[in-house]
Every structure is written in structure tokens, then in C-alpha cells.
Design a protein that fits this description.
The chain is an alpha/beta fold. The protein has one domain: NAD(P)-binding Rossmann-like Domain (Rossmann fold, 3-Layer(aba) Sandwich), CATH 3.40.50. The protein contains 8 helices and 7 strands, in the order βαβαβαβαβαβαααβ. Helix 1 crosses helix 8, helix 3 packs parallel to helix 4 and helix 4 runs parallel beside helix 5. The longest helix is centred in the middle third of the chain and has 29 residues. It starts with 9 loop residues before the first strand and ends in a 12-residue tail after the last strand.
Length: 261
């Protein structure tokens, strides 16, 4: 097993109070990093759990769809730890019922909300962080968390699938234009991951679980730690010649149909 070493590195993780965000924060803290977790609301129990790994962690309240919040997040990070070496754009929303509607009935207000967070927020924060990295002159690494639904669309979720497809392409554009500054940008597309939300919506119900996993060759949901390890690889020096890549961690979801024809 690769033992990643993030000693001396400062990492910003958005959506840090969610299951994937906090799993990633815990992993990089254990690997020696300074970590800033950002979110719209702090969860004291999550921060207490993270501090069990290291005291070099802080929370910054941030709505990534607001430019001024993103500027504050970066300035607070630099104030506390001196620099930003790694950014993990993990924050995003999809929307559950009653927002899941067919295209012709989809509320444009909710479309704007999803795009403002999933696309605009990723663009805003990445631009502010990349400027700080360029000024520092040490390069850096940015990892954008997208989704398999940004590769293949899903019904009743047009805003989310379009937003994540946008993140996929934004990652490639960023990689192309930031490479001269030694800033690598990579994309990670999770499949169905076992979180508190997916458990309550799907995996607590055996019938829904069977239906959801019917097209996943590995026949199980992913673990948040498996996504965190993927983020660590893309963010680390072990992937030093990798930029503009898309790492899909989905149990085979994207391989094709699992049934015979």
C-alpha cells in the first residue's frame, strides 16, 4: 500500500462536513497535511473526529457560490498556514424530491441553484486558489470531484448531470492553461457511494438497493475511504506527471450493461 506523505502541505477541502469530504480530510490529516475544511455549516462532531487525527485542521464557513466567501476562505487559509498547496473541490448539490422532475417540468430556479454551486463555485474558488498558487510560485494540485452522471446522464436530474459534465470539461481546460505554472488539475468521478444520504434514500431498502446495484458489476456501493484514497493519489507527488485526467471510481458502472441481450 502506498503511504502518502503530505507533511508540510496545506489542503482546502470544500463540502468538508459531508461524508466524502470528511473522509478525505481525515486521510490527508493522517498523512501529515494542514487541512482547511469548508462548508456552509460547521458540525462540531465532525471537527472533533478530525482533530483526533491532527490539530492542524480548521473550519471556515463558506458558500462557494459566493465570490466573497471564496476569497475569505483562501485568505483565512493563508493566514493560518501560509499557503495553499492543494484544493479539493468537493462541494456540490444534486437535489432530492420534490426537485427531481423531467426536463420539461424542471424548475429553473433550482437549475440556477445547482449550476451556481456545482459549476460557478468550482470556477470561482479554483480561480482564486490558482492565482494564489501562481503568486507563490511553487505550483500546486487541484482535484475536482464530479460524478459518473457527468459522463452518462440520469433521468430527472438534468441540472446535476449538466453541471458535472461542465466540471469534467472545466478540469481539462484548467489543466491545459495552468500547466505552465506547475499546477496540475485532475477530475474524479465517483459512482454510487455509501453515505448517510444514499443510505437513507436507497441502501436502507433492500428492493431499492437491488435495483440500484443491478448495473454495477461489483454489486456493492463504494466506500467514502475509496474516494478519499483516489483524491490523495491525484493530489500527491505520486501522480506528478498526471494532469487533465479523469479517474472514475464506480465499481464498473461505466463499463456497460451487466445483463445479456
Amino acid at each position: 500500500m502506498i503511504r502518502y506523505d503530505f507533511t508540510g502541505k496545506t489542503v482546502i477541502i470544500t463540502g468538508g462536513m459531508g461524508d466524502i469530504g470528511k473522509a478525505t480530510a481525515r486521510k490527508v490529516l493522517e498523512a501529515g497535511a494542514n487541512v482547511v475544511v469548508a462548508g456552509r455549516h460547521e458540525k462540531p462532531e465532525v471537527m472533533e473526529w478530525l482533530r483526533q487525527a491532527s490539530e492542524n485542521v480548521m473550519f471556515v464557513c463558506c458558500d462557494i457560490s459566493k465570490w466573497e466567501d471564496d476569497e475569505n476562505l483562501v485568505s483565512e487559509t493563508i493566514r493560518r498556514f501560509g499557503a495553499v498547496d492543494i484544493l479539493v473541490n468537493n462541494a456540490g448539490i444534486n437535489g432530492q424530491q420534490p426537485e427531481r422532475k423531467p426536463f420539461h417540468e424542471y424548475r429553473h430556479e433550482f437549475w440556477n441553484e445547482v449550476i451556481s454551486i456545482d459549476v460557478n463555485g468550482t470556477f470561482y474558488l479554483s480561480q482564486i486558489v490558482s492565482r494564489a498558487m501562481i503568486e507563490a510560485g511553487k505550483g500546486g494540485s487541484i482535484v475536482n470531484i464530479s460524478s459518473v452522471m457527468g459522463i452518462n446522464p440520469a433521468r430527472l436530474q438534468c441540472a446535476f448531470t449538466v453541471a458535472k459534465a461542465g466540471v469534467n470539461m472545466l478540469s481539462r481546460v484548467m489543466a491545459l492553461e495552468l500547466a505552465p505554472y506547475n499546477i496540475r488539475v485532475n477530475n474524479l468521478c465517483p459512482g454510487s457511494i455509501l453515505t448517510e444520504k444514499t443510505y437513507s434514500k436507497f441502501y436502507s431498502d433492500p428492493v431499492k438497493t437491488e435495483k440500484l446495484l443491478s448495473h454495477v458489476p461489483m454489486k456493492r456501493p463504494g466506500k467514502t475511504e475509496e474516494i478519499a484514497v483516489g483524491v490523495m493519489f491525484l493530489a500527491s507527488e505520486e501522480s506528478g506527471y498526471t494532469t487533465g485526467a479523469n479517474l472514475v471510481i464506480d465499481g464498473g458502472w461505466q463499463c456497460g450493461f451487466t445483463r445479456d441481450w
